[in-house]
Amino acid sequence: MKDCWNEDPEARPTFIGIRKTLRAMNQGKQLNLMDNMIQMLEKYATHLEELVDERTNQLIEEKRKTDQLLYRLLPPSVADQLKVGNQIDPELFDDTTVFFSDIVGFTPLAARLTPLAVVQLLNDLYTLFDSIIEKHDVYKVETIGDGYLVVSGLPKRNGRRHVTEIADLALEFLSGISNFHVRDLPDVRLQIREGIHTGPCVTGVVGSIMPRYCVFGDTINTASRMESSGTGSHIHISSTTNDALISLGGYVTECRGQVEIKGKGLQTTHWLLRKLS
Predict the structure, then answer these.
(1) Axis-axis angle for helices 161-177, 239-248 (nearest 10)
(2) I need a surface site. Which of 94, 129, 196, 243 has the fewest CB within 10 A?
(3) Are 211 and 82 in contact (CB under 8 A)?
(4) What's the Cα-to-Cα distance from 159 to each of 137, 156, 162, 173, 248, rounded to whole Å?
(5) Partner residues linked to 268 by β-bridges
(6) Could you tell me the end-to-end alpha-carbon distance of the chain, in angstroms, rounded to an integer?
(7) pLDDT-based confidence at 272, cuts 50/70/90?
(8) Structure confidence at residue 32 (pLDDT)
């Protein structure tokens, strides 16, 4: 076909040559030019359909990967609303449980490591934590340096189960980190402080470039204070969380007594010790 379009008439094939070529293409069968063109168009249409199906499947797979990544950054319900251009209004959740943790002595530990080793340490630790939270009905809000923030009871409400979900998570974190090793400092054993508080929270999407699903409220602040006023390898819980666990049953706690909580004054707090088998 390309030879027939040649701008030089002398370079174009003769009809006899075209006939011989068509006969060779048809394996010696005597078909007229129209039949041959129809066959070629049929083959082209079939090939085009296969190509479209292949490209469509590739597009679907890429969309699945993109959605999977997006759902790791934002709650699926929120991400789906943003994809269609809807505005996300702030929402109040009356009953949630918030968990904070950080590494004891992280600053002097980081000073002993190279920047790359610090990143590697945090990545290894957070990968361990992420594998644990996948087994629980919780939402990982963010990580700030060596701090790790998780909430249960939002963005999907789960009744009173949020208290036990976070309690189980905190106990598993302590169990998991007992076998954790720092690659460049194999003699070092990490300890984490954990703090938990139960109460209401407000959520909302902040920003238009790299939007973030943020959680606000005094419950967040109190959980942070529980963590910062705790001790290594212990789970420090507020009296509100302790009361919720006692009412649900199945957990052993211990009263710590009156503790000075920054911005809150003296408060009675507790240790979460273990879950009853």
Answers:
(1) 100
(2) 94
(3) yes
(4) 11, 10, 7, 23, 12
(5) 258
(6) 80
(7) very high
(8) 62
- The two three-digit tokens of residue 264, written as one number: 């809150």
pLDDT in tens, 60-107: 888 888 888 877 778 888 888 877 777 888 899 999 999 999 999 999
Tokens 């009412």 -> residue:
247
Phi/psi region, residue 228 (left: phi>0; alpha: psi -120 to 50; beta: rest), is alpha
Q: Report residue 63 as tokens.
A: 């969309």
Per the prediction, the chain carries an average pLDDT of 86
How far apart are the C-alpha atoms of 127 and 237, rounded to whole Å? 25
- The crossing angle, in degrees rounded to 10, of helices 76-83 and 33-73 is 130
Cis peptide before 115 (omega within 30 of 0): no
Q: How far is CA 103 from CA 109, 225, 234, 275, in A?
A: 10, 15, 12, 23
Estimate to the nearest angstrom the gap between the alpha carbon of 113 and the chain centroid. Answer: 28
How many of the other CB atoms lie within 10 Å of CB of 74? 19
Check: CB of residue 183 under 8 Å from CB of residue 123: no
Residue 205: name the closest of 91, 128, 96, 108 by CA. Answer: 91
Q: Identify the sign of the CA torsion 51, 56, 57, 58.
A: positive
How many CB atoms are located within 10 Å of the residue 136 CB? 17
How far apart are alpha carbons 135 and 255 in whole angstroms? 29
Q: How far is CA 34 from CA 20, 40, 117, 175, 206, in A?
A: 15, 10, 72, 77, 65
